[in-house]
Amino acid sequence: MRLNQDPDVLLMGHPLLFQEQPQVAVGEMSSDDFQHNLEILKQKQLSTLGVGLAAPQIGWPARVLSVGISELNRFRYPQAPDIPFAFWINPQITDFSENTCWTWEGCLSVPGMRAWIERPESITVVGYNERGERQERNLSGFTARIMQHELDHLNGKLFPTRVEDKSLIIPNQSIEHQEEWAEGWPTENAHKTTRGQISNER
């Protein structure tokens, strides 16, 4: 499969977003079409100001994702740390912490919505880079959060399925006016945690 130069971001409801994506054969990783699709994935992530993007979100059925934050795409998560750009092919989590953390998550495939979501605070992930080389990283904080969010996409899950309580889902516009929220709403820590920050408590 070869993506066009500017694919649409698929929205919640599209069947591809609910499917577990197939593994990429190692021999395919160096092909022209695969390398072309990687570049399209990266450019789409940057042009949409995403901090991560998974292949199925742009109609590419493959276990591939990209992550990275810089001044080019920090707008949606202004308090997030710099994260070097990286591709992950066939990624999988091999270990995760018992400690969990919370943050506000959003998604390009679920526009207009944010949710306060709990996930493991740190993980170990293994996979391949764009050159077909094995890579392994220990990730924590917001970096681990992005990786878990994007890996969910490869397993056919969207972030609303991770929400424990519907009171923790808000309109995206609301978080742009966080300073005006009622005291302690929707939780004490959700109230004071801005986009790109992590809280150790609900």
Your description of this structure?
The chain contains 4 helices and 8 strands; from the N terminus they run αβββββββαβαα. By secondary structure, the protein is α+β, with helices and mostly antiparallel strands. The protein has one domain: Peptide Deformylase (Alpha-Beta Complex). A 5-stranded antiparallel β-sheet has the order 1-2-3-6-7. It is globular and about 55 Å long.
Question: Could you give a short description of this structure?
Answer:
The chain contains four helices and eight strands, in the order αβββββββαβαα. It has helices at 32-47, 141-154, 172-175, 188-192, and strands spanning 52-54, 64-69, 83-96, 100-105, 113-120, 122-128, 134-140, 169-171.
Please describe the structure with a list of short key phrases separated by commas or semicolons.
five-stranded antiparallel sheet, three-stranded antiparallel sheet, Peptide Deformylase, 8 strands, 202 residues
Mean pLDDT: 97
Main sheet properties: 5 strands, antiparallel
Number of strands: 8
Global Rg: 17 Å
The appropriate CATH architecture is Alpha-Beta Complex
Task: Please describe the topology of this protein.
Blueprint lengths: L31 H16 L4 E3 L9 E6 L13 E14 L3 E6 L7 E8 L1 E7 L5 E7 H14 L14 E3 H4 L12 H5 L10
Antiparallel strand pairs: 1-2, 2-3, 3-6, 4-5, 5-8, 6-7
